[in-house]
From TrEMBL:
Organism: Porphyridium purpureum (Red alga)
Lineage: Eukaryota, Rhodophyta, Bangiophyceae, Porphyridiales, Porphyridiaceae
Presence of the UniProt keyword Hydrolase in the record: yes
GO molecular function list: 2',3'-cyclic-nucleotide 3'-phosphodiesterase activity; RNA 2',3'-cyclic 3'-phosphodiesterase activity
Residues annotated as signal peptide: none
Protein name: RNA 2',3'-cyclic phosphodiesterase
A Pfam cross-reference name: 2_5_RNA_ligase2
Superkingdom as given in the UniProt entry: Eukaryota
Length: 233
């Protein structure tokens, strides 16, 4: 089984991210529609709204026998936490490394909605660091490459993955989308945002389907009490 640790979104935040994705497609009709996510011929693989999440740490393949120890490590981290809020805003991407020096800019790799940098995102980054340390100490990350463990944590919600077979038209469309979004954020208008609370961490399993994959919750580790409850005591 392939596992990772993450946090889920509220219904409102999930709808917001889905709206960002739909808006992107309406602005750029050359992109394949999200409803065609399972189509094998598309080089842009849209993530179903039900699978939206923020990854804290990828674990990878693990035997069923590893679950008790892994769950104990994650539960210990959750028990030290209180709830906090996160905000989502905008759309951006990571770029694929290419061996073609003439290909500028490089093609997009992952399209995502980033988190606003605030106190909530700082708490999430700290939580991710503790989760990674606990899993590493338990020996659950030994199969990961060193560069993956040392990679900077950038919290986000992935909405699409772009395969290496993406066409020049699709690449140009995605880059134009990002350019339009950056221009909008520079305007003197309040940006569209969505807030959601985090009160648990979740152990997910990636399950392969006939077409694509889905993320199933294996265990949920709830924080003992919310920050609002603490304020009232």
């Amino acid at each position: 089984m392939r596992l990772f640790v993450g946090v889920t979104l509220s219904a409102e935040a999930r709808a917001f991210v889905d709206g960002v994705r739909a808006n992107a497609c309406s602005r750029l009709p050359s992109l394949p529609a999200p409803t065609h996510a399972a189509a094998g011929g598309s080089s842009i693989k849209w993530v179903p709204a039900a699978d939206f999440h923020v990854t804290l740490q990828y674990i990878g393949a693990q035997p069923e026998s590893a679950l008790p120890g892994m769950c104990a490590a994650l539960r210990a981290q959750a028990e030290q936490m209180t709830s906090f809020d996160l905000q989502l805003e905008g759309i951006t991407c990571t770029f694929r490394h290419t061996r073609k020096p003439t290909q500028k800019p490089p093609p997009p790799r992952v399209l995502f909605v980033p988190l606003v940098e605030d106190d909530g995102s700082k708490q999430l980054c700290a939580l991710a660091g503790r989760v990674t340390a606990a899993l590493k100490e338990g020996g659950f990350l030994r199969d990961l490459k060193k560069r993956d463990l040392e990679k900077a944590f950038t919290p986000h919600v992935t909405i699409a993955r772009v395969t290496q077979s993406s066409s020049a038209v699709e690449t140009e469309a995605l880059l134009e989308l990002l350019k339009q979004d950056q221009a909008t954020t520079k305007e003197d208008v309040a940006p569209a945002r969505a807030s959601f609370g985090v009160d648990s961490i979740i152990l997910y399993e990636t399950v392969k389907l006939e077409q694509g994959q889905e993320y199933q919750m294996r265990e949920v580790f709830r924080f003992p009490q919310s920050s609002h409850q603490l304020a009232e005591t």
